[in-house]
């Protein structure tokens, strides 16, 4: 099944509150963009925080940096934090930051396990200093027969509110598709950026079919997009919907209503605030999205 985003889809998205009025002026005055998690209808702010390779060491300097980034996320209206049992000490750093700042109830915590292993789960809960996760994902799905039975069981027992799967490897997409179709998780997290749009062909349409929310991993291609535009000004035609390159790149993804949230990684509170700015103001329309692709293809 293929889903194409047409002008009518955008009009419907507007009516459903997915897009913000293009009459909006100052970005901070416009409403915060949220999306419904397909399986529950619960709305979450569309820009979150990724934590791969940014909070690896549980030391004073990292905790201070993480505190500033998480505070910037929350202050600017965001909630979603994505981490993993394998991201160095990130879970421990986040656990301490959330406990010290009293932020656990203000954030939506997503973590990942390498396998359906109870000991690994207990370790993540301990490190995150929480009894309940918002989203528990099976990291890097690579085999078609991988089961989410244990994850469903944990969800039923109240360990997590949602379950999901992740991958950022094109070669594993057939496995991701098979698991998505059979197990119908609440979320799929997949690599998707303006210069890496493979997920549009198979994963996004399938996610819509099985009503899974989509989180976009590596939305900046791990910083590749910023390197490609270094020294370049934001084009005039993009200034109506983006105040920065970060917002330009994120809004391309957010303009697809199948995307539930983007999770750019950052260790910089200023970058977090910039990223959160993509939750305000208009999104690019289909013509502008095509122009964004043409632009990035010339880089
Ligand atoms: N298989 C999986 O499940 C999987 C795999 C990979 C990633 N992920 C998830 O996806 C998240 C995002 O991926 P990623 O962190 O690898 O890459 P990314 O989000 O595509 O890019 C991160 C890079 O962009 C920079 N950056 C962020 N915001 C910026 C801004 N506003 N202006 C300028 N530079 C900015 C960061 O540097 P600064 O620190 O200086 O801001 C960092 O170098 C991860 O953190 C992780 O949570 C999941």
TrEMBL record:
Keyword Nucleotide-binding: no
InterPro entries found in the cross-reference section: AKR2_Oxidoreductase, NAD(P)_OxRdtase_dom_sf, NADP_OxRdtase_dom
Keyword terms: Signal
One Pfam family recorded for the sequence: Aldo_ket_red
Keyword Signal on entry: yes
Domain of life per record: Bacteria
Position of the signal peptide: 1-26
Residue span(s) of domain NADP-dependent oxidoreductase: 47-285
Protein's recorded name: Predicted oxidoreductase
